[in-house]
Amino acid sequence: MEKSAQNTPPRATSGGRGKSAARRHAAAMLAAIERGKTLDEARDRLGDLSAPDRAFAAAMVMTALRRCGSIEAALAPHLKRRVPARPHLARALLHIGVAQILFMDVPPHAAINETVAATGRREQPFRGLINAVLRRVSEAGQNFGAAPDLPDWLLDGWREAYGATHTAEIEAVLRQTPPLDLQFRDADALKNWQAANPDLGHALTPTCLRLETSGDVTRLPGFDAGTWWVQDISATLAAPLLQADAQAHVLDLCAAPGGKTLQLAARGAQVTALDASESRLERLTANLARTGLSAQTLLGDLESWDAPEKFSHVLLDAPCTATGTIRRHPDLPLHRRRGDIEKSAHVQSTLLDRAAAATAPDGTLVYCVCSLEPEEGEGAADAFLARHEGFSRAPIVADELPACLSAAATPA
To answer: What is 93-119 written as a DSSP string?
Structure first.
């Protein structure tokens, strides 16, 4: 997992008058997430906003989720009792308001006035309360007790696995707005793109560029031409570990939405990409078409799918609790429980056995997850090796990692 810090708070140029609609939509989106919707599902609540207001509303929601514990701590001294979450949006509006005041680049008067203006008929009984509490929070500023922004079960597990110091560092990183990285098909493509667009980003590796700004990526140069695709640098690490040369036959399991498939295809590998989700596989197919790369795509569940042949190179990006992606998906802690880790580890065990059956003798099997839980990473690998004596561990060495990450890498 990449652990580079990015301390710039979300910028919001939409803090003036006339933005109460964005705040109300944000409150509705936050309330939907707290009722069980995922972040992506709840984005439907933003459908009729303009593009700038959609971005502003999404930033408020993301900040409210990332700083949920801190927001509760900031509100607590000013509330005699917790405001109920239903059937109105009063509680969500309070959280959206505090997120702006304490953690976003929004003038406090605009945050307060427009959040109060966002109250509807159901919230009218709470309008005065919202106004008064937000003003008190603004006056108090950051003067509130420290509070965790992640659930205890998650932090306790990390402290046991990584120690208190590293857990605090992880928690700090997960509070931050994630960067956006572009992966190019080869080094020349990145050099040419950067020469034409010198102010849009900086290279992290010969084929990966980090954007300096956020926004609609479909409007960036090279999108229609398929010069690049969006892929976090941490997600680019697994595919090169296969050391698949041009023309190598590679099986990419649980492949969609396809960043690793594109990486392998760009290297000239003959890729067979399998995924159980039809909608996600459609995204992979669309990405292949846009980039002009080719791979065989198959719809199928690995638990019941039989490989037609043995592959010399197999990549399994297994389903997991995805706790390493909380920075980009801050709703995850609301939808996960400690028991989910054991359930995921059981599924991963089955999928690893299936992947092993598709791996040729003397072949390479790379297993990866985007979870920080040892049970899904090192634990799953150790259990697999205990079951499969024909496989041995190939340690990852620093030279196999980008220079910008190798110093922060955990030992193999």
So the answer is: HHHHHHHHHHHSB--HHHHHHHHHHT-
